[in-house]
Amino acid sequence: xxxxxxxxxxxxxxxxxxxxxxxxxxxxxxxxxxxxxxxxxxxxxxxxxxxxxxxxxxxxxxxxxxxxxxxxxxxxxxxxxxxxxxxxxxxxxxxxxxxxxxxxxxxxxxxxxxxxxxxxxxxxxxxxxxxxxxxxxxxxxxxxxxxxxxxxxxxxxxxxxxxxxxxxxxxxxxxxxxxxxxxxxxxxxxxxxxxxxxxxxxxxxxxxxxxxxxxxxxxxxxxxxxxxxxxxxxxxxxxxxxxxxxxxxxxxxxxxxxxxxxxxxxxxxxxxxxxxxxxxxxxxxxxxxxxxxxxxxxxxxxxxxxxxxxxxxxxxxxxxxxxxxxxxxxxxxxxxxxxxxxxxxxxxxxxxxxxxxxxxxxxxxxxxxxxxxxxxxxxxxxxxxxxxxxxxxxxxxxxxxxxxxxxxxxxxxxxxxxxxxxxxxxxxxxxxxxxxxxxxxxxxxxxxxxxxxxxxxxxxxxxxxxxxxxxxxxxxxxxxxxxxxxxxxxxxxxxxxxxxxxxxxxxxxxx
Length: 511
What we know:
Elements: H1 2-139, H2 143-191, E1 202-206, H3 210-217, H4 222-231, E2 234-236, E3 243-247, H5 251-267, H6 272-301, H7 308-316, E4 321-322, E5 325-326, H8 327-344, H9 349-358, H10 373-383, H11 388-395, H12 408-420, H13 429-444, E6 449-455, E7 460-465, H14 472-489, E8 497-502
Parallel strand pairs: 7-8
Antiparallel strand pairs: 1-3, 2-3, 4-5, 6-7
Helix pairs in contact: 2-8, 4-6, 5-6, 6-7, 8-9, 8-12, 9-11, 10-11, 11-12
């Protein structure tokens, strides 16, 4: 039994040893195969890297050769340009040397010519001196004296010719100025249109029935008395059907009364407290409307940058009239007339238009009522920083102050054109003619007056007196007396200028 066990163990050990030997042999063969494979792969990688390195070297070599070739080409091109420049410089140097040589020759030639000219000049001076001596001997005066006489003669001749030219130019200018002035005024009148006079001192307020008329009158007339006290307008309630008359010379008051009555009638509540409230509200609304009217007028005429107080005064012109002519329409028309004439004369039309629009603002101001409206308007324009030429044009448009700006005559003429032509102001032709005749007859009544003429639609009265009967001092006093009498006895629009003309003529006959 032990034998068999030992035999089995020995067999197992032998089998294990054989297995180990076989295994080692197998592993050695595999390792050798792996090593050989790795060696082959390493050889392949080595060959591949060597090939890549060769390719890279060849590429770098080609690039280097290309770069070297480009540099060589640039060097050759630069050398070629330098050679061309060198050739050009050589040519320029040759030309310069040639020019220098020619200049030297020309200088020598000029020097020779100068010497010849100097010699001839000396000869000329000697001959001239001899001739002058001979002339002095013949004429009996020196050269300086002869020159002085010649200069004086030329001065006298030039003075005579210049004076003749000046006189001719002045006459031509006067003739052309008269023609041009007539053309400009006629064109201006044709290009503008005035509205006929429609303003009056009474406004008609329509009502639906007599019941509303009774409510407006109120118990014992308290409502109508409250309306009159609040608005300053006389309210006439008579037998006229479906109408109440609002009478006042102030159009603003009439408009306030009309709007207030309209709101009261629509609302239905008519009593003294409500009347005062509505009138105050309407006055505020009318002030806003006046400002809006002024702004719209300035925009329509293209006038900008005006003080807001002046804009309000322009808006108030809508509710003022002068002998039936609406003041705002009159001022707009004067502005357009002034702009047209300024354009014709090559002046600033915007400046003229601004002065024309503002020329009558003194009529709507409540300040200094004793001042003439032109001077008051000038004062207001100065107060609100208007330009000096505009202020002067406003103040002098009735010649109450001296004209210092070039647009002042335009405003004067524009105002006369707008206010004097037929239909502009409400005045019956018979009364108009009678007023002019009365004015002429009034002046004729004075001693020494020979002729009288009312011109410019009654704005000016020219009185011609006899030089033998009236002296200069008496003429000055006569103009003052006539102005005072017209002011006391007559009714007229605006102001009247009295001009007394005293002319002395001396006549003699050559037989």
